[in-house]
């Protein structure tokens, strides 16, 4: 099964986050490591600065590389600043360009057809698909103007329109838009929805999903692993991995290589323990996962052996009811599912009751969960003191979604027997100044980090391991906000040793979570 990557950038960027590919050879080396056979490529200068010069650089650099296909960046000409649209499109076709990328945030224009129509018309006539790029964004942000996207699809029905960077926060809009426009496609690099490919197949949309990595700055390993553990039948897997891209880009020949066939993805087999997941429902991400059996099925499909979760209901206010929900879930699958007891510092009188209910009256509770961000209190707040004393007495791990003003040194020294795990710490891109918690994790014996729900920047995990030591980093997925395989792939296919992968995926957690059996 070959893999075609629809979303790759070549060339040095202003900020080196993600380790840019300065030459085609560097890009091809990484593609080979990740078993990616072909790619549609833009140039960083065209995306960030000079469109025409960047496009020219691209053609020069990919010449002679049959597995790299050029994608030009264009913008609607305003007053003669760019070439005439019709002539520009003809130049692109003559240069072998396979698609055109529009980046409204860079060139400062509205996507409405009253602005983009004079360019989109010639592109439709030339059968050059359009990639709409709205930039990397947090899943909770919604920069995609879906009304404009649908207007383009309707006004230009013979034009294939591909939206790049759809995230889990775009799920409702994206699914509704697919029902409205038959010429709309979604690129997958930021769409880490649990069971994404299976969901698309069930809805009859697998032919409109195009695989992409967003390299760089994004790590390709997450995206490849998510695809390979999609659970799709062979026909659907072939469609998503390369056939859809070939159809949209009008590529007639089969891919010349199939790296997966020659060198299948393998990684050291050891117990995988996901230390950061959730139970229940949170409509902000429109996750389709509701039942305990769905969680266990996903674990088996993705190679996760045990999972520790907290209730969405518990962290959002109804602490007691949410902890009861967790107890019900883990009771149903005690060999696979474990729970966190959530503590809300705003209701300190309830703490003793929750500790007793979870750790004395229920089974499979193995640690505490503090969501300092939602609760509005730092980890050293007095409202957490009783729970932390209990954790210290019983050596219970404490998973903390940080507040931002947490006194880590003070609190870890006061409770030395409690392992503290700072959630989402791997959002660091590896280049910008590291957050204080990363620095402290390298210095404080009982402070750890998890990789859950991170942006997954390319090379950042290896830099993190080098900075803190591998024993301080633990695998977590934030499931069901994100697919289990998405974050697991970041470790399983990382440029790390087998021993380092085993430690992150389960060895470190097994050392800390002594109640997980």
Gross CATH architecture of the largest domain: Alpha-Beta Barrel
Number of strands: 16
Uncertain spans, ≥5 residues at pLDDT below 50? none
Strand order of the largest sheet: 1-2-3-4-5-6-7-8
CATH class of the largest domain: Alpha Beta
Residue fraction in strands? 5-15%
Structural class: alpha/beta
Q: How many helical stretches? A: 23
Number of self-contained structural domains: 2
Helix content: 40-55%
- Largest beta-sheet details: 8 strands, parallel
> In whole angstroms, how far apart are the ends?
38 Å
CATH topology of the largest domain: TIM Barrel
Shape: elongated
Q: What is the typical, i.e. mean, pLDDT?
A: 94
Overall description:
There is one protein chain. The chain is an alpha/beta fold and 517 residues long. It has two domains: 4-262, Alpha-Beta Barrel (TIM Barrel), CATH 3.20.20; 273-512, Alpha-Beta Barrel (TIM Barrel), CATH 3.20.20.140. The protein contains 23 helices and 16 strands. The strands form two sheets. The protein has an eight-stranded parallel sheet. Strands 9-10-11-12-13-14-15-16 form an eight-stranded parallel sheet. Helix 19 links the parallel strand 13 (398-401) and strand 14 (420-422). Helix 4 packs parallel to helix 6 (113-126) and helix 10 crosses helix 22 (484-492). The chain starts with a strand and ends in a 5-residue tail after the last helix. 55% of the residues are buried. The mean pLDDT is 94.
């Amino acid at each position: 099964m070959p893999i075609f990557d629809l979303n790759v950038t070549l060339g040095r960027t202003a900020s080196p986050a993600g380790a840019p590919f300065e030459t085609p050879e560097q890009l091809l080396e990484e593609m080979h490591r990740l078993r990616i056979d072909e790619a549609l490529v833009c140039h960083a200068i065209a995306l960030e600065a000079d469109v025409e010069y960047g496009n020219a650089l691209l053609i020069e650099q990919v010449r002679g590389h049959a597995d790299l296909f050029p994608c030009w960046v264009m913008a609607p000409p305003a007053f003669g600043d760019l070439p005439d649209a019709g002539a520009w499109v003809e130049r692109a076709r003559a240069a072998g360009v396979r698609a055109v990328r529009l980046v409204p945030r860079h060139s400062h224009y509205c996507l409405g057809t009253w602005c983009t129509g004079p360019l989109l018309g010639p592109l439709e006539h030339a059968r050059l698909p359009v990639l709409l790029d709205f930039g990397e964004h947090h899943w909770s942000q919604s920069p995609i103007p879906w009304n404009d996207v649908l207007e383009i699809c309707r006004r230009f029905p013979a034009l294939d329109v591909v939206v790049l960077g759809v995230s889990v926060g775009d799920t409702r809009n994206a699914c509704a838009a697919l029902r409205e426009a038959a010429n709309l496609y979604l690129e997958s690099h930021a769409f880490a929805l649990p069971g994404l490919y299976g969901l698309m197949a069930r809805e009859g949309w697998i032919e409109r999903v195009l695989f992409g990595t967003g390299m760089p700055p994004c790590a390709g390993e997450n995206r490849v692993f998510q695809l390979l553990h999609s659970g799709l039948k062979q026909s659907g897997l072939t469609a998503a991995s390369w056939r859809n891209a070939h159809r949209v880009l009008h590529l007639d020949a089969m891919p010349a290589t199939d790296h997966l066939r020659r060198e299948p993805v393998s990684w050291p087999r050891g117990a995988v323990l996901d230390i950061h997941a959730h139970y229940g429902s949170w409509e902000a991400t429109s996750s389709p996962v509701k039942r305990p059996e769905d969680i266990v099925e996903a674990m088996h499909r993705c190679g996760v052996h045990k999972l520790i979760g907290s209730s969405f209901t518990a962290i959002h206010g109804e602490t007691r009811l949410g902890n009861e929900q967790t107890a019900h879930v883990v009771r149903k699958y005690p060999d696979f599912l474990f729970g966190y007891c959530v503590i809300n510092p705003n209701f300190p009188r309830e703490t003793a009751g929750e500790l007793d209910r979870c750790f004395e009256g229920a089974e499979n509770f193995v640690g505490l969960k503090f969501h300092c961000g939602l609760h509005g209190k730092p980890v050293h707040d007095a409202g957490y003191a009783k729970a932390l004393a209990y954790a210290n007495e019983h050596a219970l791990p404490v998973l903390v979604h940080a507040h931002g003003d947490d006194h880590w040194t003070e609190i870890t020294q006061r409770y030395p027997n409690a392992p503290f795990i700072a959630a989402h710490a791997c959002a660091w891109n590896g280049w910008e100044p590291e957050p204080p918690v990363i620095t402290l994790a390298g210095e404080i014996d009982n402070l750890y980090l998890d990789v859950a729900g991170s942006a997954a920047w390319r090379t950042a995990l290896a830099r993190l391991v080098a900075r803190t030591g591998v024993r301080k980093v633990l695998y977590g997925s934030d499931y069901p906000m994100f697919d289990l395989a998405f974050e697991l792939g970041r470790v399983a296919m990382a440029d790390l040793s087998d021993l380092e992968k085993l430690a992150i995926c389960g060895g470190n957690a097994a050392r800390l979570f002594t109640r997980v059996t």
